[in-house]
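Retro notes - structure team

What went well: the batch runner handled both jobs without manual restarts.
What didn't: labels got mixed up in the shared folder, which is why I'm recording both outputs here explicitly, each with its sequence directly above its tokens.

Job 1
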Amino acid sequence: MKPIPLLLALTAQRTTAACLSSATSTTINTLLTTGGPNTLISLCPDTIVPLTSPIIFTAPGQEISTAGYPTDSTRATLLIQPGTDTTSAIRGNWQDYVRVRNLQIDGNRPKAGALGGDALLEMGGGTTGQWVEGNVIRDTRSWSCFHLIASGQEGNLCRNATVKGNTVGPCGEEGVGVEGGLWADGLSVECTESVVVDNEITGATDGGIVIFGSPGSSFLRNTITSSSTQRGFGGINMVDPNYNGNYSGVVVSDNTIIGVDSGFIELGIAMGSQVWSNPHPLNNFGPTTVSNNVFKGNIGFSIVINGWEGGLTVQNNDISAVSPPSDFADPSTCGSIQKSAFLASHPLLIYPPGAGSPLTIQPEFTTLSANASNFLCLTHPLPTSQSFTAGSLSVSAATSTVVDLKGLHVQLQGDGNLVGLDTTGTNQGGSEVKWASGRYSDGCGTDGSGCVLAFDEAGELKLTDGTGKTVWGSGTKGKEVVFLGEEPWVVVKEADGQQLWTVGELA
């Protein structure tokens, strides 16, 4: 008798259970442990399950889902509770053919807080045939909303997983907290010969889909949209050295990457070991295909390739709807090569020595003039002016930076000279002095801390040094000082907006 494939056997043996209208992680875990293989945990629609610990699959073929597999807001919710150290709602590692379907999985970051730990949904390991479909996965407390983890075992890889039709995000936020970066991935995939298809990822602040090697896997028809207000580092990333940099057989096709409103995505598709902020010494390798992807709106660089070998085909990707990057981002902190590409609005970039062969790319690519790494250098647009009320500005030459404006960096130098430096990148790397106070002091000290620029309570903008001497002052009783990206550069004003003094009067 011909043996029945395991997947079919597990599917056939799965029994229908009455749905649970209330549950906790403890009761669900008890049912999974006692039920054994093929146990189905069916939650009634609109059920909310408060979690103080993860739900853990314990045997092959188990499933947790909402009864009837709804696709709307009636899907049952797994909700991590505040006051716990739990970051994962479900752990499906190391169990074949387990399924997570039609749930709302909520990390509850706004109330429970950000916390280092495992992803909100942890699947994978040395398994085959896992299935994650039709879920809402949002607000992870940790580094990723969903992690399909590798096994670390050559003879027992994570393989043949399906991630389909999920709605993911928001995931993380911009900035740094007490435990480090607050950003998070949407989907983090380390599984081989797998399919990630028809998912919608919105508001991932690290990578929308991060491909950690995953040889033989396909990433198809996914839509990745930025937060409406925050920066996302990448849309689809192929930059990490997992599987020793092996991306052979990976297909990234028919995806849509969109930056919206005041949010943006720095890198649409990042390819190679030299593109991200932490370059690796060895190249990633293919052959890999990236085709028929669509880029729209606020994307800093649509595709960047550097640190690749072993075959690459990049064809028929549509960049026609990408916005001019200077409309939504600022390159002031970028290196000169990255800044030049940004200012020239070159969305497709390649460094040929870092791309290897065979290589087939579409004609719109711009060749980088030198080996440039780290394209994660864009910030939100800087203001064209910044104002301070009386008593609210005090900066020493040790701190240096007074304000950063669009195209202009204002700093107090170690000799007491207040200067405005061009940062547009059009003048020898952006170092041209646009204006300067032209007043100096020998009393700033070796670290510059003796010289202080302040707009004092009386409404005077002045520079004092370590001896207590006033090097210069505006002689005003103003209400605010305004730093501008154009002449007259620095202005002290009265409450009604009347101009009392400009920095040009020091000349």
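Job 2
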Amino acid sequence: MCMQRHAVSKFIESYLLHKLPLQKYGLNPDHPFVEDYASCQMAITPNDFFPEADKGNILFKRASKWCFTTTGLQFLDDNTRLDADLVLLATGYDGKKKLTDIIPEPFRSFLEYPSGVMPLYRGTINPLIPNMAFVGYIESVANLHTAELRSIWLARLADKKFKLPKVEKMCEHISQEIEIMKKTTRFYQRHCISTYSINHSDEICEEMGLSSWRKNSFLAEALSPYGSQDYKHME
């Protein structure tokens, strides 16, 4: 991790520890903030979340092993029990498995990389699978904006308004992105482009033959943040 990124990560960690009662409830993460950011695992705290915890309406429990009982849950780490009328298992969604289930061989095997990351060029197409695209699979810090930009790219590609690089070049580009992820976070298999999302958008614009400079002046380009509104006129 570069020194600048490490410093920014430490600053944000200090701010969050000051702003939120993470230490009070034993919620301090055991990894740096940048790893969550790089894998799109940032959470938004609902209104009154910690005030409700202060009232005892929300309980926190870290446990690596647990099981069901007739009245709720039992935590095997310390052998404590929690009575509950309803238990919700937030297991997430195995999107990659669902995709591989509907794709026949030999194309199914092309979605498997040794790293466990699904290999997609521009986050949209696999260079080895013809006539198929995957929009919205690879995450960013602004999924709707990124999916829209990729959809524009895909539509222009279907209209033959630009040509793709050679398959070897696209595979090389995919490998480079995966290596960036592996160096940034242990959660790289989620495949999130948050650490290079602006560069990702710039490359898509340039590949479509459009300017990657979306601001109306040099100062704005250099000093102001980028957002989805900067890409609303893709002509």
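One thing worth noting from job 2: Helices lie at 3-19, 33-38, 49-54, 95-102, 143-158, 167-184, 197-207, 218-223.
We'll revisit the folder naming next retro.
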